[in-house]
Amino acid sequence: MFEISVQTYAHKSIVISLQELFLEAMNEQDFGIKEIISHAKEYGFVYPSSEIYDGLQAVYDYGPYGAELKNNLKNLWWQAMVKLNENVVGLDAAIFMHPLTWKASGHVDSFNDPMIDNKDSKKRYRADVLLEDKAAELATNGSQDKADALLKEMGKLLDAENLEGVRQLIIDNEIACPISGTLNWTEVRQFNLMFSTQIGSVADDANNIYLRPETAQGIFVNFLNVQKTARQKIPFGIAQIGKAFRNEIVARQFIFRMREFEQMEMQFFIRPGEEMEWYEHWKQIRLKWHRALGIPNEDLRFHDHDKLAHYANAAVDIEFKFPFGFKEVEGIHSRTDFDLGNHQELSRKKMQYFDPTINKNYVPYVIETSAGADRLFFMLLCNGFKQVTAGAEAHQKQRTFLKFHPALAPVKAAILPLVKKDGLPEIGRKIFEDLKYDFNLIYEDAQSIGKRYTRQDLIGTPFCIAVDHQTKEDETVTIRHRDTMEQERVKISALKGIIEKEVSLKNIFREL
Ligand code: ATP
Q1: Given ligand 1 and candidates 111, 247, 254, 257, which is best to mutate, with the most ligand atoms within 8 Å of its CB?
Q2: Which of 6, 42, 65, 380 is the most buried (most CB within 10 A)?
Q3: Distance from chain centroid for Cα 222
Q4: What's CA 137's distance to the chain center, in Å?
Q5: Main-chain dihedrals φ then ψ at residue 358, nearest 5 degrees
Q6: Rounded CA gap, 331 and 341, in Å?
Q7: Separation between Cα atoms, residue 137 and residue 131, nearest integer Å
Q8: How far out from the chain centre does Cα 1 lie?
Q9: Looking at the structure, do residues 359 and 294 belong to the same domain, yes or no?
Q10: Ligand 1: distance of its center to the CA of 259 in Å?
Q11: DSSP structure string for 43-76
Q12: pLDDT tens, N- to C-terminus, the chain (512 residues)
């Protein structure tokens, strides 16, 4: 039996009220995000985990439409990686790994966040995030030089592990606690983010294992297995989607920062010395992928790391403009031979590749692309949530809809007979039966057509197909387009082609 060490359900600090989960989700500030979070719950996208027990902090469940949207997102990532690249193959490694994995990866010794507490509010913060927020504020107020200097100084202090210096920097910059407004800070402490648990029945140290904090290590330890069995030659990549776990301390940011989340990672194995070329290559590919999902270019940007992780010689984040500012959604890292080299040392198994082109053995270098499925989901929600005024002047009203790319939308089309009689439901059912093998559909024949359109808008369905009396005469239906509310009459036989065109991989990834 496994027992997770944070399994202290009665412990107040991990159990929080719904109000805290949703209304105070973004660090006690609003940023206009409340409505998006409430919408996500109300319309079946995201619920707090174990809500009947008041929820578990920073853990969430995905409802019917959320699960569809997330699956579509993961599927599009997988297709773009594995299907569109001949030299990228997939893997599904276990969450539990030999404990030495995490020694080799550096997570046991240095997977820490620098934390600081405010003595008056008793709230805990990540020291680096406080400083980054201050830098963002300086930059917004036109002091870019000061912002750059602050981040540089922070990077220097963190590299030197000078935690007292980090605390002093916070005080010198008069960074006050957002709750108490005071500078009454504790010292900065390092906090390891890995969850540990026991495997087997004997409770001694040798049986201690970790829930993986990243999926990447499952790829590294399988590097030679995959290379040989999938007959890959360098350069090649291994892609994986899976759960990761981090005991995040500052975890009041809805699904932006969770304790259990999903990563979509790809490790690309290359010849040493070629890393900068491949790093640039994957940076551009990944940015285009985000754009292809319908994220406007101006809401995406690269942000070079000020402080490189222990494994990287170059690192950049792709950031999305959330309502609370530009934040990381994906990291692209040049990880050198750090991981394979360390695994080779600790396992005493060779992690080398024989390169026939140059007749040499070497430990490959690695470029990693690492995206969080949940964070991208949040990005899609923020980007797609639209509130507009619609209708003729006299009857104007607020209209809310989710503008998802059709390929991502949880439901592709709703089949809506205008009335529940005159043979219209039968035609609607037939359309549903014909198309259900190709697309996720909803059939609905109760209530007014207007109410049914609104319900589909709220979950982001791109097409509403109405069956009316004319359908009986000429086998045509109307398609209502979610974003424009425009309607067109088309033949029933053309429906499949119309929807397919919008959701086809080729249509989405032409640019990649
Ligand atoms: P941050 O600085 O925001 O903590 P990170 O730099 O530690 O993120 P990585 O280790 O590079 O993140 O992980 C890659 C991706 O995994 C991130 O870009 C993010 O999308 C996702 N991710 C990381 N931590 C979390 C989390 N706690 N909850 C949700 N997604 C996460």
Answers
A1: 257
A2: 380
A3: 24
A4: 25
A5: -115, 5
A6: 22
A7: 10
A8: 31
A9: yes
A10: 10
A11: TTSEEETTGGGT--TT-EEE-HHHHHHHHHHHHH
A12: 233 333 333 333 333 333 344 434 444 455 678 999 999 999 999 999 999 999 998 999 999 999 999 999 999 999 999 999 999 999 999 999 999 999 999 898 878 889 999 999 988 888 998 999 999 999 999 999 999 999 999 989 988 889 999 999 999 999 999 899 999 999 998 888 899 998 886 656 667 899 999 999 999 999 999 999 999 999 999 999 999 999 987 666 899 999 999 999 999 999 999 999 999 999 999 999 999 999 999 999 999 987 777 678 899 999 999 998 999 999 999 999 999 999 999 999 999 999 999 999 999 999 999 999 999 999 999 999 999 987 777 678 889 999 999 999 999 999 999 999 999 999 999 999 999 999 999 999 999 999 999 999 999 999 999 999 999 999 999 999 999 999 999 999 999 999 999 999 888 887 66
Distance CA 369, CA 264 (A): 8
Ligand 1, residue 248: give the atom nearest the CA: 27
Tell me which residue has its CA closest to atom 11 in ligand 1. 331
Structure tokens at 220: 């590294």
Q: Kindly give the distance from the C-alpha atom of residue 454 to the centroid of ligand 1, in angstroms, as a whole number.
A: 35
Q: What range does the domain containing 132 cover?
A: 112-191
Dihedral sign, CA of 488, 493, 496, 498? negative
Q: Which ligand 1 atom sits closest to the C-alpha of 309?
A: 6
Residue at 308 is within a domain: yes
Burial (CB < 10 A; 0-12, 13-18, 19+), residue 449, is middle
Residue to substitute in 194, 219, 370, 378 for testing ligand 1 pocket (most ligand atoms within 8 angstroms of CB): 370
Buried b (16+ CB within 10 A) or exposed e, 370-379: bbbbbbbbbb
Q: How far is the CA of 372 from the centre of ligand 1 (A)?
A: 6
Q: Ligand 1 centroid vs 12 CA: distance in angstroms?
A: 26
Same domain, 185 and 207: no
Which 3 state secondary structure label does DSSP give 80?
Answer: helix
Task: Give residue 374 CA to ligand 1 midpoint distance, Å.
Answer: 10
- Answer yes or no: do 310 and 372 share one domain: yes
Q: Which residues line ligand 1 (CB under 6 A)?
A: 214, 246, 248, 257-258, 261, 263, 328-331, 370-372, 374-375
CATH number of the domain within which 176 lies:
3.30.40.230
pTM of the model: 0.85
- Give a yes or no: residue 134 inside a domain: yes
In this structure, are 247 and 336 located in the same domain?
yes
